[in-house]
TrEMBL record:
TM helices/strands, residue ranges: none
Bias (Basic and acidic residues) ranges: 42-56
Protein name, per record: Uncharacterized protein
Chain segments carrying region Disordered: 29-71
A GO CC annotation given for this chain: membrane
Keyword line: Repeat
Amino acid sequence: MADPAAQGHVELEGTGKFYYPSGATYEGQWKLLNPPPPPPAEEPKEVKKKKGKDEPPPPPAEPPKRVRHGKGLYQEGDYVYEGEFFEDVIQGQGTFTYASGAKYIGEWKANKYHGKGTYIWPDGRKYEGLWEENRMHGLGVFIDASGHAWEGQFFNGSGPGLTALV
């Protein structure tokens, strides 16, 4: 059987490790965006004759690029994200741990906390509930550093009218 690489075969997805100029690393699943098109078939002579000499060439295609796609681990210094990516964007389920020790565990959309998730501060405070565009938004429970719990509707990051849970 012939070698696929010798026949111009290009891997469209796989697993591996990426190294970034910043020193960051990614290890996990990837996919190839803008794969090279298959070689054109030979056109019949009559089609070649009909094309005008002044016809501009087609625009160049975007170069192929391997991107994070699927599950993986991204680390940059003391910042760590482990979870799902979609075409190089954090999307799906994942956990982000900050250098401070703070942590977000939950759903992501377009690199932002979005959906159901939990944020834990280094001092022990915790919010568990709904998020929208990186803000506490919707039904949730906030537990302060003393362990007192507050429940209610959060709007754009704040919780007016929260009820203390006893």
